[in-house]
Amino acid sequence: MGRAKDQALTVLLVEDEGIIRMASAAILEDAGYEVLEAADAEEALITLSGHPEVDIVVTDVQMPGKFDGLKLVEVIAQDYPQIQTLITSGLTSSKEARESGAAKFLAKPYTATAIQSAVKAVGMVVLEARA
């Protein structure tokens, strides 16, 4: 069951740093996205299992828990191939992000404009797939 092309995209933001997560969520909501939040990869997978409307996952790499953002992206690619992913990190390289299967990489720290632009670019892939 698909959604209309012009319906707002839904982003799952996975970030263990609460202030960064809250600020990034507000930035993305201001840009018109529906935003769900998770503090780690395990919470993200629980959220995904109950929210089939998620189009994009934006994830940090280093997080507490059983696995990191790179592994999360690999699981999403396998279990939710329709979802596009964006990795943010201050330590991981864009090469590592691509190798995990992420559609895009954004270095930290990032500006409001940078995260909006990165999510918009990933969202274009989602919208093209819907067309």
CATH superfamily: Response regulator
Under CATH, the topology is which?
Rossmann fold
- As a percent range, the share of helical residues equals 40-55%
The overall strand count is 5
> Uncertain runs with pLDDT below 50, 5 residues or more?
1-6
Q: What top-tier CATH class fits best?
A: Alpha Beta
**Terminal residue distance:** 14 Å
Strand-pairing-aware structural class: alpha/beta
How large a portion of the residues is in β-strands, by DSSP E?
Answer: 15-25%
Number of helices: 5
Shape: globular
**Number of domains in the coordinates?**
1
State the major sheet: 5 strands, parallel
**Spatial strand arrangement across the major sheet:** 2-1-3-4-5
How much is the average pLDDT?
93
Overview of the molecule:
This protein has 131 residues and is α/β, with parallel strands linked by helices. It contains five helices and five strands, in the order E-H-E-H-E-H-E-H-E-H. The protein has helices at residues 18-30, 41-50, 69-79, 94-100, 112-130; strands spanning 10-14, 34-38, 54-60, 84-89, 104-107. The longest helix is centred in the last third of the chain and has 19 residues, at 112-130. It is globular, with a radius of gyration of 13 Å. Residues 1-6 have low confidence and may be disordered.
